[in-house]
Amino acid sequence: MAASPVPRTPPPRSTLAQTALRAWRSPRCFAFVVAALAVLLGAGLRFHQLGLADLSADEAASWAGASAPGMSQVVALEQQLDPGKLPLYDLLLHGWIRVFGDGVSAMRAMSAGLGTIAIVLVFVAVREVCNSFGDAPASAVGELAGAFAALIYATNFTMLESDRTVRMYPLVMVAALVQIAFLARAQRRGGWFSYAGAAIFTAAMVAANFTACFLLLAEGLWLGCLLLAKLAGARTGGLAVFRPGAALAAGLVLLAPLLPAALTSSQQAVAIGALDWIKVQPLWWPYTMLRKAAGGHTLFWMFAALGVFGVRRQWRAARLASGFFAAWMVGPILGVLAVTYLLHPLEFFRYLLIAFVGMFGFAALGAASVRSSAWRVAVAVLLVVLSMRQVRHWLRYSHGAAWREATMLAAREAAPGDQIAVFPPYCTNVVRYYLPRGRRGAVTGADSQCTAARVLIMSGFSISPPAAVATMEACYPQVLARLKLTEVRSR
């Protein structure tokens, strides 16, 4: 007769308590819990009520370029709507629209998906920087730093707003974060896989938007300082300089056939005044911008305190990681200031999104340097609570212009064959988007001159020349409706 199986007994309570205590004290376990929370929370925020706000004029420009019937038409139209840029994002959105349609929520879902991927990539990039540019003790906090950086990114208002917009910036962010991870890996480990990844994603991020060149400037600053440190005999941890730098240059070489036409288009865009709405800012603009990007005074000074704490705590083990985060944050800002004062004003908030992630990395290094599990939990909770104060209010209400309502009112006032004027002309595509297909051809731009149209939709009051605004108001003196950031006028 077979022996009866011996019943299993549950493990002693002391063993369960010890396991729980080890998990509580494990930095790696804590890091992956925080990273998972960041992805879940960030995805929920990015996909929440995507269609609440009307399409903006910028988003409508992306829609107009990507909704052309074929890929060659997308490329040609993109050069008219966004001169000086390569059409990588527009081609990707073109394919997305063909599959999921051109509804507001559908188009924004692509950006939200890319933004969710970016949360994971923030974790990867920050961890790789700490692991590659730090000694063994610093590598131990790499996963914690990556997790905290991902949590900050996931709940940050600035990044959330960008990731819910039908523009190319989430795509630029994804490509830039992958490129940073490959560059850090190439400097520490080398290998053709790392070099190829750095080159390919350098090309991808520049093709998505030329403002990615500001990150290349930051990386050039980093490599140059590292080379000078090597020549001076300082300890550089055996990090390579020339081959990773050559990989970045190779990424630009991949785009070489496309760059002359893009450069010519950029010069034409400046010549016709496409960037005249960007004005030179006060000298303290970098501080104001970083404070706004953090989410306000409290979060900014918390980030600053965490950054100082992290640099001080990790000075021996992670000086180079701190140096890279500094170049990551400051380099793009210096690039924008250089272009502004040497060529043309370019101090625009969205052109520096990648620099803000460098600031998050600094703060995350400090949060990861906290040794007590209880204090780590407190820091994580405080970061989320402070970030969500601004996010909750923004998600609850629509803060964009009332383009849909304005377009419907103008369409009722204008006869079926009449034109509808739009000021400034850049906003014509958003009016076309909200009109029935059969009437989209009747939209015309009004640029500081009276038109034959009887009805005018007017916006852009804060960025348009006052003389042009006054001319439009004189041409269309009767106000039919004053809506959020828009007016509907008639003769």
* Secondary-structure element order, N to C: HHHHHHHHHHHHHHHHHHHHEHEEHEE
Instruction: State the secondary-structure class.
Output: mainly alpha
In round numbers, the mean pLDDT is 89
User: What composes the largest sheet?
Assistant: 5 strands, mixed
List descriptors.
five-stranded mixed beta sheet; single chain; 491 residues; 22 helices
Please provide a written account of the structure.
Helix content is 67%, strand content 4%. It is mainly α and 491 residues long. The chain folds into two domains: 372 residues, no CATH class; 88 residues. It has a five-stranded mixed beta sheet, sandwiched between helices. Helix 3 packs across helix 21. The longest helix is centred in the first third of the chain and has 30 residues. The termini are far apart.
Quickly describe the structure:
This protein has 491 residues and is mostly helical. It is built from 22 helices and 5 strands.
Question: How do the helices and strands line up, and which of them pair or pack?
Answer:
Elements: H1 13-25, H2 27-47, H3 57-66, H4 71-81, H5 88-100, H6 104-133, H7 136-140, H8 142-155, H9 157-163, H10 169-188, H11 192-208, H12 213-231, H13 242-254, H14 259-271, H15 285-294, H16 297-313, H17 315-342, H18 353-368, H19 373-396, H20 403-413, E1 420-423, H21 428-434, E2 443-445, E3 455-458, H22 466-475, E4 478-483, E5 486-490
